Amino acid sequence: MSIEQPLDGRVAIVTGASRGIGAATARALHRAGAAVVLAARDTDALNTLAAEIDADGGRALAVPTDVTDPAAVERLVAVAVDRFGRLDAAVNNAAGGGHPPTPLADVDVAAFDSALTVSLRGVFLAMKYEIPAMLGSGGGAIVNMSSTAGLQAVGGLAGYVSAKFGLIGLTRTAALDYADAGIRVNALAPGPIHTEQLEAAGEHARRAAAQAMPMKRIGVPDEVAAAVVWLCSDASSFVTGATLPIDGGKLAGAPPFRRPVGTAPRPDASSS
User: Based on CB atoms within 10 Å of each CB, which residue in 60, 133, 257, 270 is the most buried?
Assistant: First the structure.
């Protein structure tokens, strides 16, 4: 293991690996030295990414998986261990379901349930099968992908917010259950990240999102992926049960008051 490749010789699973943060994470884990098992429902996208990693001298295996299907998730972990002999890390990034911004009383019950099924139950299923494999390998690290919406609610997104809040609770529970068994479990809470969804929203939406951030920009998937690598490496060996925001300061609080350029400061009210 080296500073350049802190995960050399390790094996990692990434769910939701076909695009966006998941694909960036898979590439980052590969660059850090890990063999990467790629899971998602888009077989073509997985195969393309696996070929890219293989061509770069890495080891990658595409395993099409529906994270809502317990048998499929169990098979994913079994195939990873059978192919590479162990499991050291897992990034549970798959998400989906839910509904567009809608007042709670108008939310369709099936749409609400779909957000919990994919984004919360899917992570539960992933950990249910990943953890025994990691115990067999002597320990490991799990990173679950939440959101700033899992720490600060967003109106109109009852399904998404509930799933992401629940995911943080699930992460903490798993961290406590296995802290003394050598398995660390943490979560990331990205803010606005330039993925396909934000690209599709258009330039105006991206500009508005950027201006709402204290850093006045949105993030990119590689910035989230870098945090994943750190949480999966020995550099974070005393970190478990934590949720790390990657949000350009969004959750830090209100930005400072700033006078409009060219205006004079207001006299101190206490002076005479």
Answer: 60
Structure tokens at 243: 């949720």
Q: Which of 124, 160, 165, 178 is catalytic?
A: 160
Residues of the domain holding 30: 11-246
Active site residue 160: yes
Tell me the pairing of strands 11-15 and 35-39.
parallel
Q: What is the pTM of this model?
A: 0.91
One digit per residue, the tens of pLDDT, for the chain of length 272 reads 556 799 999 999 999 999 999 999 999 999 999 999 999 999 999 999 999 999 999 999 999 999 999 999 999 999 999 999 999 999 999 999 999 999 999 999 999 999 999 999 999 999 999 999 999 999 999 999 999 999 999 999 999 999 999 999 999 999 999 999 999 999 999 999 987 777 777 888 888 888 888 999 999 999 999 999 999 999 999 999 999 999 999 999 987 876 666 666 555 544 43
Q: Does any domain span residue 51?
A: yes
Look up the CATH number of the domain holding residue 240: 3.40.50.720
